Amino acid sequence: MTIFLTGIIFLFAILCIVLGIQFQRRRWLRLIAGNIFGDLPLEKSISVSQQTSWFMYLLGLFSLFICWWLNFSRNRMLLWIGIGIILLSCGVILIKAIKEWIKTGY
Length: 106
Description:
mainly alpha; 0% strand; single chain
């Protein structure tokens, strides 16, 4: 069961990293919520994609950490430290995004 779960999480991690790379390259912008039909202007889509790419990278790294933890570690404290680091990183990026949103209106 652990191998099956690890495989699914690993595929999810690879998907997140690929999406992060594509968002960083300004491709696949219509996958971002609110832009399915190309409703957002290109410059707004690009700024949102840059922020979204960092979230995707962090989510991919966190998923890889969970894969490693499931197979090689039974230390619960290490898991909570990893979760805390990822949540703090996402919080910092989210606060920067909210400040930019308040400043520019987007």
